[in-house]
Amino acid sequence: MHISEGYLSGPVLLSSAVLAIAGTAIGLKRLDYEQIAQAGMMAAVFFVAGLIHVPVGPSNAHLIMNGIIGLLMGWSAFPVILAALVLQAVFFQFGGFTTLGINTLIMAAPAVAVHYLFGPLISRPHKTGSVAAFAAAATAVAFSAVLMAASLLFTDEKFWALAGTTLVVHIPIMITEAIIAAFCIGFIKKVKPEMITGKTVTLKSSHSVIASQPQEKRSCN
Fold first, then answer.
1. How many Å apart are CA 32 and CA 75, to the nearest integer?
2. How far apart are CA 109 and CA 107, in angstroms?
3. Domain presence at residue 214
């Protein structure tokens, strides 16, 4: 999903950078102090998922995990994904610095979109939440592939065939991430539901007051 440097036109890079900066600013503003650890964990998930990739022209096909990141983080998906992309570019020369804006946009914007489309559904009981997570992950990957294809087409119409290939190769990724997201959301709902609802679950316990009785004095004969 990463677009390498040297392929996209200046206007595409500039406009996407502006949108990515705006999204990151909104995400940082909405990131609560209690979510910092969660944001770091999601950035690590994205970082590791993107390391195993298959080159496809100027881009790469790999797991993105932006669906589950969007469901759990909302607008904060922008700074989460941007931070992971910077680390990948620094340590592995993966993607690039001039393409940070477009790469952030094509993966974070779908994450925010599925947060609003499917976020209210994942907290519902039974299988509804898992089905919503499945659909959210598949939609996020598909939306990212469309944005990447559009960025190539806006640069040069000669990328038309490559844009179509990009959409096709991400179909297996859509299915894989959908299954992973459905499992992860179901697991999180059982062990840490506040990550989904945003509300801390407290267990009510009855406190029993033990009346202390004075001890009898023992006399030593």
1. 11
2. 6
3. no
**Tokens describing residue 98:** 């001039």
CA distance 152 to 174: 20
β-partners of residue 61 are 54
How many independent structural domains does the chain possess?
Answer: 1
Average pLDDT on 6-29 reads: 93
Examine the pLDDT at 205 and tell me if it is beyond 50. Answer: no
Q: How far apart are CA 213 and CA 203, in angstroms?
A: 31
Cβ neighbourhood burial of 33 (10 Å; 0-12, 13-18, 19+): exposed
Would you say 38 and 76 are in contact if contact means Cβ atoms under 8 Å apart?
A: no
pLDDT above 80 (res 201): no
- List pLDDT tens digits, range 131-140: 999 999 999 9
Nearest to 32 by CA among 185, 195, 189: 195
In a domain, 217, yes or no: no
The dihedral through the CA atoms of 109, 200, 28, 53 has a sign that is negative
Q: Is the pLDDT of residue 211 over 60?
A: no
Of 48, 105, 53, which Cα lies nearest the Cα of 79? 105
Tell me which residue range forms the domain holding 26: 10-197
When the pLDDT of each residue in the chain is averaged and rounded to a whole number, the result is: 83
Partners of 53 in beta bridges: 62
Cβ atoms of 108 and 22 closer than 8 Å:
no
Residue 186 lies in a domain: yes
DSSP 206: P
